[in-house]
Amino acid sequence: MTTVAPNIPAPRSPRRLRGRTNTELYSWLFMRASGMLLLILVFTHLFVNLMTGDGINALDFAFVAGKWADPLWQVWDLMMLWLAMIHGTNGLRTVINDYAERDQLRMWLKVGLYTATTITVVLGTLVIFTFDPCPPDAAADLLPSFCQAP
């Protein structure tokens, strides 16, 4: 009687460790801290935008322009953008590390993730700080009602 060896896939090759670092510990701590801060930032943002004043009926271009005229709301929205993007990127990085089996695939997925994150954060930051609701060379019929016509 002969026995056949079970068809078990070979284990993944261990990733090389470059010294002992606490990167995953710091990543774990960041996720907890940023998650708590994001809860405060997002729910305060929702409360201010939806519950105060005229509520959802007041949300329009003028409302956002008025909010971003105040440096407090620029920094608030910037913190939400940066924390949400870094928090989400870190979470997706963990998923990629857990489920991408080949080293080259894992590397390219992370390159795409970091590229998309960088582009989104840079463009979002530029929009928040360079937003001008009343550009001086725009046609008068395209300007919102609160802008002074040239």
TrEMBL record:
UniProt keyword annotations, A-Z: Heme, Iron, Membrane, Metal-binding, Transmembrane, Transmembrane helix
- Compartments, as annotated in UniProt: Membrane
Matching entries from Pfam families are given as: Sdh_cyt
Q: Which InterPro entries match?
A: SQR/QFR_C/D, SuccDH_FuR_B_TM-su
The reply to whether Ubl conjugation figures as a keyword in the UniProt entry is no
- Regions crossing the membrane: 25-51, 71-90, 111-131
Q: Where is this chain primarily localised?
A: membrane
Name the chain's protein. Succinate dehydrogenase
Query: Which organism is this entry from?
Result: Jiangella asiatica
